[in-house]
Design goal:
Blueprint: H1 3-14, H2 23-42, E1 55-59, E2 65-69, E3 122-125, E4 131-134, H3 137-142, H4 149-158, E5 172-177, E6 180-182, E7 189-196, E8 207-215, E9 221-230, E10 233-235, E11 242-247, E12 255-263, E13 266-267, E14 274-277, E15 292-301, E16 304-319, H5 321-326, E17 328-336, E18 349-355, E19 361-365, E20 372-374, E21 385-393, E22 396-403, E23 406-412, E24 420-426, E25 434-443
Parallel strand pairs: 6-14
Antiparallel strand pairs: 1-2, 3-4, 5-7, 7-11, 8-9, 8-12, 10-11, 12-13, 12-14, 15-16, 16-24, 16-25, 17-21, 17-25, 18-19, 18-24, 19-20, 21-22, 22-23
Helix pairs in contact: 1-2
């Protein structure tokens, strides 16, 4: 039954003039048609208000009806793309859970507050998914435990300033060169630390060195270590695992010392002992009689050789491959009394270590009377009796010369793994004595 037929029937009833026209039956038909029409309408479904069906009836307490625009009625966060209006929001009245069931959950279009220091909190979550805010301290404290050693190194390197190459790990000291000091010498003597993470920032308060006297000269432990500050130290970018510091040990008491380097609040946990004693010597090459004079003339007296003019003398191989692998240090003294005599000038000479590769480490003539140099190093202008130390450890060879109230050092990152022997040579020029005395050898590990 169409709506038009209902209207027609209503009009027919209104216009009825016959007394016995069955008006009551016609009215009943109209109601029946209305019910049928309502039933038909309820079977029609639309997804929401549209241009035609846009009203909804609402009632007051007395069942008076008015129609209203349906608008956003029925829309919610789960089924609609909503836009808030001023004053809108959501206040929880109880715990509320959003279960994503594995679907992406995104919040996009947020303001960038990276430069606003009032935004100093972060969103955090516990193992059950509860969300809260935090200052981030707990996350930062637990972060290192999540990294393996490779990742930790990468993180440390990433924290350096632009152009900064200073070490960022904890300093580590494996070897002291020299491991002993004669404190009867009244000048600054230098010690080289060999280890790791020793290229420290020595121009700012970020790095400092302290030495601790832990034992007296007899080796007895001090109840309270004596602590001294070190103000004079240098670092080398090409040798980041080496650090030099200098002290006039003449002003310090005899005893056993340890060295502690602090950089960016990180300090080495331990240190080899540095022995400081008056006139200290160490195990000698006692009874070496195997100086061999290969040419010219010379005089051998135990570990000493006095060179004639000319003279070429060598020893057996006293530094073995095992010594090289362990790391070693040898020491010898040179008494250089040569001088020019008119046109009779001092001519080339050298005293040091050499191997079958013919690479020489030691001191040699610099081209001027009375002056000599570390091989391939600076001219020394030393005094007439000086001590030379040659050491090898962890891929670096060190040549250290003490003389003229100074300590001279040369580092070299190339060292051929050949057995070494001592060599002393002298030409025919000049006058005066030249001698070389072997003092000793120690292994560094």
């Amino acid at each position: 039954m169409s709506e038009q037929s209902i209207q027609e029937k209503s009009l027919e009833i209104r216009n009825e003039t016959q007394e016995y026209a069955n008006t009551r039956g016609k009215v009943a038909d109209v109601f029946d048609d209305i019910n049928v029409t309502k039933s038909n309408k309820t079977t029609e479904t639309i997804m929401g208000p549209d241009a035609t069906f846009k009203y909804l009836y609402i009632l007051d307490e007395n069942n008076n009806a008015k129609r209203m625009l349906a608008g956003d009625l029925g829309k919610n966060l789960a089924n609609s793309a909503l836009t808030s209006i001023p004053g809108a929001g959501l206040s929880l009245g109880a715990n509320w859970t959003v279960n994503t069931s594995g679907f992406y959950y995104s919040i996009v279009g947020l303001s960038d507050k990276s430069s606003d220091n009032t935004f100093n909190r972060m969103m955090v979550q516990d193992s059950s998914g509860q969300v809260a805010r935090s200052n981030g301290k707990n996350i930062m404290m637990s972060f290192p435990s999540l990294l393996n050693d490779t990742e930790k190194i990468e993180w440390r390197n990433g924290m350096r300033l632009t152009g900064e190459n200073f070490s960022i790990g904890t300093p580590q000291i494996d070897v002291l060169l020299l491991p002993f000091i004669d404190n009867t010498k009244d000048f600054v003597q230098y010690t080289t630390l060999v280890g790791q993470n020793l290229f420290v920032d020595n121009v700012t308060p970020n790095a400092y060195i302290k030495i601790k006297r832990i034992k007296d000269e007899n080796g007895a432990n001090l109840p309270i270590p004596e602590v001294y500050d070190v103000d004079n130290f240098t670092v080398l970018q090409n040798f980041p695992n080496n650090l030099n510091f200098g002290i006039n040990w003449f002003t310090k008491p005899e005893g056993y010392y340890q060295v502690f380097v602090t950089h960016n609040n990180l300090t080495n946990a331990s240190s080899p002992e540095l022995i400081v004693k008056a006139g200290l010597t160490y195990s000698q090459f006692n009874g070496i009689t195997n100086w061999v004079i290969n040419s010219g003339s010379g005089t051998v007296n135990d570990t000493e050789i006095a060179l004639g003019q000319p003279c070429n003398a060598t020893t057996d191989e006293l530094i073995s491959i095992a010594d090289i692998n362990a790391g070693f240090m040898v020491s010898y003294s040179v008494n250089n009394g040569q001088a020019n005599n008119g046109a009779n000038f001092v001519t080339p000479w050298q005293c040091g270590l050499i191997g079958s590769d013919n690479v020489f480490y030691g001191v040699s003539y610099s081209g001027q009377a009375g002056e000599w140099k570390i091989s391939n190093g600076p001219e020394l202008a030393l005094t007439r009796n000086d001590t030379i130390h040659i050491a090898y450890y962890n891929g670096v060879v060190y040549v250290i010369a003490e003389g003229n109230g100074k300590t001279y050092q040369q580092f070299n990152g190339t060292y051929n793994l050949y057995p070494r022997y001592f060599i002393a040579t002298r030409s025919t020029g000049g006058i005066g004595p030249l001698s070389m005395t072997l003092l000793g050898k120690i292994l560094l590990s």
